[in-house]
Each structure stands twice: as structure tokens, then as C-alpha cells.
Amino acid sequence: MICGTMLILSALFLCWYNIKESRRAYDDSQKVLLELKQLIPVVEEKDEETEFLQQIPAENPADDLFAPYEEAEEKAPEIPEPIVINGDYYCGYIYLPSLGLELPVADGWSYEALRNTPCRYSGSAAENDMIIAAHNYNDHFGRIGDLDSGDEIVFTDTSGIRHYYEVDFTQYVDGYDVDAMFSGGSSEWDITLFTCTLSGQSRVTVRGTHKEIE
Question: Would you state the torsion angle of the CA atoms of residues 162, 167, 171, 177, taken in this order, to the nearest 10 degrees?
């Protein structure tokens, strides 16, 4: 009976601690989000085709019209510089409308950073291969398993450009299967969100693709 009581008390303490950590992490991340929004100018995603066509002088001969496209294909995507807040680097913030969540995203991940905010695990929005990781706190990525196909994901980078995606599907990836997390890459998914399951053995993984805004 004593052992049983101790187990129940331990479970209650763990539950209380997780709730407390979740609330602390959310409050801290919202303070960072407020600062980020003050520092980031918000613009819509660039229409690159229109931008290049506008740069072509009217007197150009017809056979030169595709020159800007050829030049652009050779250039690597420009990745905005991170913003530093309280000594930490951030690449932007993410908005999940159907979950009512808006959170800053740290530029690069570590276990310490994950205690406070979602982190860019790899890739970038500019290269259409970004992977974002977060703890399974209820107010971080603990509810991403509730996202449905077609739900919207919005990521605003530090240059102020909003990148729009829609959820394709959710899957569970083994916690040690790194290749599965990266499989497909930018050829299949433009954004991936993931977090641990409660057991920690698997990763709840949401795959999304770029969404054109009319």
C-alpha cells in the first residue's frame, strides 16, 4: 500500500511539473514573440515571376526575355539573417490557425532551447525543406496530431515574408529513425513539424506543402 501511494504521488507530481513547465514555456515564448513582431516587418510572399518580368526593360529583344530566369536559377535562395533576442537567435515565428497557436522559432535547436520554444531542426523556408521541432507541451506542439489535411500553416521569416503551407498528412516516425524524418525532402514536403509522443518512443510528424495565395 505504501509503494502504491508513493507511485500515485509521484505520478501526480510529474503531472503537476509538466503542466507548470508547459505554462512557463508558453509565457516565455509569448514574450519573445512580442519582441519578434516588433522587429520584423510583415510583407506577403514575393511573386518572383512578376518581380523578374518587371526588371526587364521594354526595349529588350524577345530572345533576351528569359535571361533573368536563367540567372535566377543559378543563384541559391537567400536565407534571411536571424534576429537576436536576449542572446538567442530566432529565424521567425509560426502560426497554426486551427490550433490557435502562434510561437517564435529558434534558429537551430538544442535541448535547452526546446524547453522554451520550437526550434528549426534543419532546412529553411527559403529552400522549401524546413523541419521544426518542439516539445509536446500542450501550448507548443503537443496538439499537432489534431491537425487535419488541408489545415493551414503560416511561417513568417525575419525579413517579414509570410510562407503559407497546407497540411498533407500526419504520421508517426520512430524516435531513432532519422532517415525517415528526412525522407522525401523538399521534393515531397516543404515543411515538417514534429514532437515526441508521451512515451517518447515515436515522433508525431506533420508534413505540409507550399500553398499558393490567390
Answer: -30
Per-residue confidence at 77, pLDDT binned at 50, 70, 90? Answer: confident
Q: Which one is predicted more confidently, 1 or 201?
A: 201
- In the numeric block, the cell 536576449 is attached to 86
C-alpha cell at 51: 518581380
The topology under which CATH files domain 2-39+82-210 is Sortase; Chain: A; (2.40.260)
Q: Using the predicted structure, report yes or no on whether residue 191 has a pLDDT greater than 80.
A: yes
Query: Which residues neighbour 114 within 8 Å (Cβ) at sequence distance 6 or greater?
Result: 133, 134, 135
Q: What pLDDT is recorded for position 4?
A: 62
Alpha helices in the chain (DSSP H): 2-39, 48-54, 67-74, 111-114, 178-182, 185-188
Neighbouring-strand partners of residue 150: none
Q: What is the pLDDT of residues 136-189, one digit of tens each?
A: 998 999 999 999 999 999 999 999 999 999 999 999 999 888 888 887 555 578
Would you say 25 and 116 are in contact if contact means Cβ atoms under 8 Å apart? yes
- Domain locations in the chain as residue ranges: 2-39+82-210
Q: Residue 192 in contact with residue 131, Cβ under 8 Å?
A: yes
Buried b (16+ CB within 10 A) or exposed e, 144-182: beebeeebebebbbbbebbbbbbbbebeebeeeeeeebe
| Contact (Cβ atoms closer than 8 angstroms) between residue 105 and residue 91 | yes
Cell of 99: 490550433
